[in-house]
Design brief:
The protein is an alpha/beta fold. It contains 14 helices and 16 strands. A hairpin with a 2-residue loop joins strand 6 and strand 7. The relative contact order is 0.15. The structure holds pyridoxal-5'-phosphate (PLP). The site of pyridoxal-5'-phosphate has 15 residues, from helix 4. It comes from Halogeometricum limi.
């Protein structure tokens, strides 16, 4: 594969953009390929190379790169009518009604412009509603680039995870290990009356994909109820993907007080949203005392794209298709791993998948999950499958980045560049694509 054009573009980019990119994960080694255009499940780079794409914009692109017809015509029509106004439009109401109709926790929605903005606003909302300052998050969970959640450490020993955030901010955040009932229970015993919210992804999807163990999400629900704290699910990735239109909360049967959305609900355009019971969401200004505002919020083109995106999923076999291919891919990778790398763990659910390069595990996998780790206690690998973000961090992360990812790319398969971010099957992928991908895994693993 020739990459001369991408190399030259990256050279230019390095002079005018930090790291040559506008979002850190894009700066792949030794230099990223620059995309010229999308084509169904493929992307074509500046040198004309075609890749089968499982990055899918890091989550938003449920249909791949070709917009379904109703989405395309809505986008074109709303853009040509005049892109935005600073006054409300019907399409915002329509989108909000759709989300409220399908997602168990949602009666009302506030739309914003990114997942980050959604989680920032949700944390402010939880603090405003409860009059408390502390929030509990999962170690290595991801909620975007926000000051309250870019922290690391243990309860009682918390630090910002980046330069530029005052230590005093981090002190209001308590990170606990995902799937660890005891630690979060202890935190609530000590600080329960000061905790505004527990904020978690229902499935850690930015750190290898870690599924919740049986009863963990319900445990968080019970603890927050007992202590008058809010349970906030960050469904920016899982929303309208895991569990289909009811989202992960429907799939797992645990209803949070507040849900944050992003990615898919904008149909490929910048978006975020905060949803929940009216009593809570109405704390946002102008209805309530918690300030929240945005020039581009509820942008008509985004709202039209997002609404038509979801409506198309409701009216077609979208989730059946992506979930079936997701399962086929996870099943195929599981078989390959058994032969080529028996210590590795295949993870994911619905249309998400990843292979965590775990270092240990029994070689007998006969009783194990056949299409992605479900955290079954009866599985012989139960003690070796990642339960927390730290477990994923302990895997062979360098191997993914430096060898495996590069080899897959050279074979024309575009995966997320490091061990941590989830990968996605889209409606544009076919059975043949999955078979081709499995051949590439066979060579690269
Ligand atoms: C992507 C993501 C975010 C951040 O969304 P942006 O639109 O990138 O700001 C927040 N939470 C989760 C779970 C995400 O996956």
């Amino acid at each position: 594969m020739n990459h001369d054009e991408s190399r030259a573009l990256y050279d230019r980019a390095l002079s005018v953009m930090p790291g040559g990119v506008n979002s850190s994960v894009r700066a792949t080694r030794p230099y990223p390929f620059f995309v010229e255009r999308g084509d169904g499940a493929h992307v074509v780079d500046a040198d004309g190379n075609r890749y089968l794409d499982y990055v899918m914009g890091y989550g938003p692109l449920l249909y791949g790169h070709d917009m379904p017809d109703p989405v395309r015509s809505a986008v074109q029509s709303y853009a040509s009518d005049g892109p935005m106004y600073g006054a409300p439009t019907e399409i915002e109401v329509e989108h909000a009604e759709f989300v409220a109709r399908h997602v168990p926790s949602v009666e009302m929605v506030r739309f914003v412009n990114s997942g980050t903005e959604a989680t920032v606003s949700a944390v402010r909302l939880a603090r405003g509603y409860t009059g408390r300052d502390k929030i509990v998050v999962m170690q290595a969970g991801y909620h975007g680039a926000q000051e309250s959640t870019l922290v690391e450490g243990e309860p009682g020993d918390v630090h910002p995870s980046t330069r530029g955030i005052p230590q005093s901010f981090a002190e209001h955040t308590i990170p606990v290990p995902f799937n660890d009932r005891e630690t979060v229970t202890e935190v609530f015993e000590e600080h329960g009356d000061d905790v505004a919210a527990v904020l978690t992804e229902p499935v850690l999807a930015n750190k290898g994909i870690v599924a919740p163990v049986d009863g963990y999400l319900q445990h968080l629900r019970d603890l927050t109820d007992e202590h008058g704290s809010l349970l906030v699910f960050d469904e920016v990735i899982t929303g309208f993907r895991v569990g289909g239109l009811q989202c992960a909360q429907g799939k797992f049967g645990v209803t949070p007080d507040v849900t944050t959305f992003g990615k898919i609900i904008g149909g490929g355009f910048p978006v975020g949203a905060i949803g929940g019971k009216s009593e809570i969401i109405e704390q946002f200004s102008p209805a309530g005392p918690v300030f929240q505002s945005g020039t581009f919020s509820g942008h008509p083109v985004t709202m039209a794209a997002g609404y038509e995106y979801l409506k198309f999923a409701a009216e077609n076999d979208v989730y059946d298709h992506v979930n079936r291919l997701g399962e086929k891919l996870r099943r195929g990778i599981t078989d390959i791993v058994e032969d080529h790398a028996p210590s590795y763990t295949v993870v994911g659910t619905d249309s998400m998948f990843k292979t965590v390069f775990t270092r240990e595990g029994p070689s007998d996998r006969s009783e194990c999950c056949s299409a992605g780790c479900e955290q079954r206690e009866s599985c012989t690998r139960y003690d070796y499958c990642p339960k927390t973000g730290a477990d994923v961090g302990d895997a062979e992360t360098e191997r993914w980045e430096r060898i495996f990812w590069q080899e897959m790319k050279e074979q024309g398969v575009f995966l997320t560049a490091n061990q941590f971010e989830s990968q996605f099957v889209s409606y544009a992928h076919t059975d043949e694509d999955i078979e081709e991908t499995l051949e590439a895994y066979k060579t690269a693993l």
